[in-house]
Amino acid sequence: MKTQTAWAIFFLFLCYKISQLDESRRSELLGSVKEGFESIAADPVGSASTYWENLQRSGGLNLIIAAVGAKLISWNIKRKRNRKTEQQKNAEEGNQVNTQELKKD
Asked: Please, what are the averages of pLDDT over each run of 10 residues along the chain (105 residues)?
């Protein structure tokens, strides 16, 4: 699944869930989201440090580190696989060139 598709599905689901709330809960939710964005805009460094501390305290930081590590490993494996297929492709092309040269002689 493409990243854009995943984000579109997420936002559609979020809009659906928000639309299912009654008016008081919806305004309460949107008000808290607005306050969150305003606090981040007012003090981005303080908000980031607070978020970082909350991640450390809750254990979410370990999950993020594990996810980043898994992504780096997958990129490494993909890069090795691409390099190996490229070498095989170059070797096959080299063999074809060599056999063509032998046939000409």
From this structure: 90 91 91 91 92 91 94 96 90 67 56
CA distance 36 to 45: 14
pTM summary value: 0.50
Instruction: Give the DSSP per-residue string, 16-66.
Output: HHHHTS-HHHHHHHHHHHHHHHHHHHH-HHHHHHHHHHHHHHHTHHHHHHH
Residue 48 lies in a domain: no
Q: Is residue 51 part of a domain?
A: no
- Segment (H or E) for 4: helix 3-19
Residue 8 included in any domain: yes
